[in-house]
Amino acid sequence: MEISNKNIDGGKAFDWGRTSMEYAKYRDIYPKEFYDAVLARNLCVEGQKVLDVGTGTGVLPRNLYSYGASFVGADSSANQIAEAERLSKEQNMNITYIVSEAKQLDFPDETFDVITACQCFWYFDHEKTAPLFARMLKEDGRLLVLYMAWLPFEDSIAGASEKLVLKYSPKWSGAGETRKPIFIPESVRTYFEPVSHEEFDLMVPFTKETWHGRMKACRGVGASLTEEELKQWEAEHKKLLDETAPERFTVLHYAAICELRVRKTRE
Fold this sequence. Notes:
Layout: H1 20-26, H2 32-39, E1 49-53, H3 59-64, E2 70-75, H4 78-90, E3 96-99, E4 112-118, H5 126-136, E5 137-150, H6 156-168, H7 186-189, E6 192-207, H8 208-216, H9 227-244, E7 248-262
Parallel strand pairs: 1-2, 1-4, 2-3, 4-5
Antiparallel strand pairs: 5-7, 6-7
């Protein structure tokens, strides 16, 4: 599914389905500390029903599956869902997946204990999804927004790779990340109140191959470049890594988590 939003990449169209194979192979990179921060809030655990919106290849449900929650993963890309189903089947995980945009989800009232949105919250039409999420959550249900990004101004490998992405996608709005809390718009705050937020640093391990794959599977590269542009970017990025990076290295990231609960008086 091709997506275009004037507030993202200057309106340049992108399609996660174009990079689903790389996404499945190279973007399951959140370290244990990331998931520990979720579990420390007693969320996504046994006895809870969880809807993961913008699930992609099912990274969050698959990594939290062993803790006992019942997951449903939803994504607008059929290719992403196909990879999520394949990976879950290979790992003998009973996870339900559906192809759906966030604003078109239609579960009965008070179906879920938790709704998670990892690395995707800014794509949503919040005017439509906020009341929808509140309706589908049980009383005192939780909306958990999660994010992780490399820090290009502090990590030289990340910074150099990011500059190369900008060469091919100069309006890519994923560049220049710094530590900050997740922004929650007023349209969401109408239906949800904040419980907690947390930001913390993470060192994420890579090889030249896996970092190249991670960068290829980003919005400004594999999801949006033409075939010829992608071929040129790949050659340049591999050369960059050969000249500047050891075979194994870590990249400095930060994680951000915002936990919200349904307001008792739903306005």
